[in-house]
Amino acid sequence: MPNFSLAPALDVLCTGSYPRLPSCIRDNIVPPSPLTGPEADAALSLLTVAIRRRLLCEQIPPQMTVRSLEKGIVVFEIPHEFRLSLSVVGDDLKLPWRLVNLEVLVGVGLPGGPPLCHSQQTRYLTQLAQSHLVAAEYPLTHVFTLLHTFCLSLVLDCLHTQAGLMSSMAAGGHVRVDEYQVGQLLRLGYWLPSTLSPLPASVAQMVPRLQITVDPSSPSHPITTTHSPPLPAGTTAQLSLGNLCLEKVVGRCVRARSSAKLQLLRDSLKNTVWETRAVLSSEPLCLRVSVPVRGGHCEVVIGVDVRTGTMGVAVEPGAGGEGVEREVGEMERGIGQPGSYLPGHLSRLQCQLFFDRVTACAKELSLAVSPSLPFPSPLPLPSPHLLFVQLLPLAYLVVCAVESSGVVAPRYYLLEVVETNGGGQGVDEGRMPPVPRIFYSPVTLAELDDAQLVEDSLRAVTVRSSPAVVKRKLQEDSHGLPSTKRVCVMSSHVGFSALPSLCSSRLLLAQIKTSLKMSGIRGYQELWPEHMCPCVSVCQFPLLPGQSRDVHRHLSSLFLSCLIFPAPSGHKLVVSKLCIVDLFVVPFYLVVDTCRGEILRGKAFTAANETFTP
């Protein structure tokens, strides 16, 4: 039988302990009793003194600032990069530093996302930093270089990720990364065309770019932002480690360049009538130009698209129609381009706003309106801004918008045309077989005086107004148009059937003047008697072909007056009343050939014979 250990068994069963173990086990394996509170405070105070002595003896990078030193732990912090906690195990200077804790501060506070540095990355950095603290000659300098380089590389990687998100989502492909070197460089362009094909060299040079460079060796500027081309003077858009939002930096760049573009447009209006009408607004960023139109003002807003950098033009809602939209499109394509002239665009837009109002008035009268007619050569008018309102098949009212001191001063002309083949200036290839193109040749072009277009406020229709355009004063109507002294014929008092007859008489009067001029008769003037139709008064007796000087002198001495006015009926008939000394008034009919502009002599008028026979 085995020999049982009775003595140890009695100790364990009776006392609950075993005092017979070797003393080496108690000295090497059994932990000592913990320190009491006063003993722990005294030990930590000794460690704090040892750390302070060591900080005075070691080389510390200037970027590492001591945030706290207490309870035997020193905390170094580089703002927005990392926080490092170190301690020592004794007061011997040869003992290495011990890394207590490491926190990476890059991206802390960025909305919507987890920390940029994962826990496994932090654990690996802790081990790598501890190895530098043990083996390096200057441990704090080596640890700072290691962690500083890692943090700057993490910053650049974060910005590269933001640029990719902007390109695919927010900017719609108008922001693109041109070059990315890990831990060194990030270059991106904005205001790019939304195309994946390579840009031409001429276009690529004009694209604004933002370059972010990382330099760990620079203590004051570890991250640098450069712009190409440079931003306007007085504006900054720099990236900092405390604000890693690339979208905000690009937004500041876009705003600065947009403001510079609008300021250039504002400067182009200097020394013009538009200078006092243009205001550069900051919220929202745009250039507002007040364009005076007949009866009020219209506001034109010029802005910059933040994604593409192109100019956008908008007119206040309801201020124009198709013509204004077409002019706004041309204005958007033109402004900002080399050789573009903003005052010219505004003048054309102002004329088009006036034409759109005239067009709206003409449509209410069911009159056709055209911006141009097929003439072989331009009409001899003071402005190229024309609008043709068709009154009769071959008769038009020409509205000529003349811009004077920033205000549209319209001039009105009566035009009669004839069709012609244009003298072989082309054929209409759209038809089979091809036929010669039809052109218009002007026969009569007479300007209407402003005094003839102003109507008495007590009458709905004025006889002294032209048959093409009848003016009347309006109070504020249902469409919100302010009252004005010149408004196109929109009165419901004027029936559509009355308008052609008024037009025919006015056109016939213009033909009479043209025919007199072609016949060599210069001494005439146009009269507008009260309660009578307009007429032409011949002031002196003309010299007829084959007439001697003595006969002409004698007839001139007997001549009193001659009035020529449209007949009560008949589109081509006029009545002439000739007054001679000692003779009665002789009325007779004349025929006007509208095609050739000739006056043909007719038969004398009597009460019994009211029918004209050539």
From TrEMBL:
Keywords noted in UniProt: Activator, Nucleus, Transcription, Transcription regulation
Molecular-function GO term, any one: transcription coregulator activity
UniProt-listed InterPro entries: Med14_N (IPR055122), Med14_RM2 (IPR055113), Mediator_Med14 (IPR013947)
Domain Mediator of RNA polymerase II transcription subunit 14 RM2 stretches: 172-236
Record bears the keyword DNA-binding: no
Mediator complex subunit MED14 N-terminal domain boundaries: 1-89
Biological process according to GO: regulation of transcription by RNA polymerase II
Primary residence: nucleus
Protein's cellular compartments: Nucleus
Transmembrane feature ranges: none
Keyword Nucleus (UniProt): yes
GO cellular component terms attached to this protein's record: core mediator complex; mediator complex
Family, similarity comment: Belongs to the Mediator complex subunit 14 family.
Subunit record text: Component of the Mediator complex.
Main function: Component of the Mediator complex, a coactivator involved in the regulated transcription of nearly all RNA polymerase II-dependent genes. Mediator functions as a bridge to convey information from gene-specific regulatory proteins to the basal RNA polymerase II transcription machinery. Mediator is recruited to promoters by direct interactions with regulatory proteins and serves as a scaffold for the assembly of a functional preinitiation complex with RNA polymerase II and the general transcription factors.
PANTHER family: MEDIATOR COMPLEX SUBUNIT (PTHR12809), MEDIATOR OF RNA POLYMERASE II TRANSCRIPTION SUBUNIT 14 (PTHR12809:SF2)
Name of the protein: Mediator of RNA polymerase II transcription subunit 14
Organism: Geodia barretti
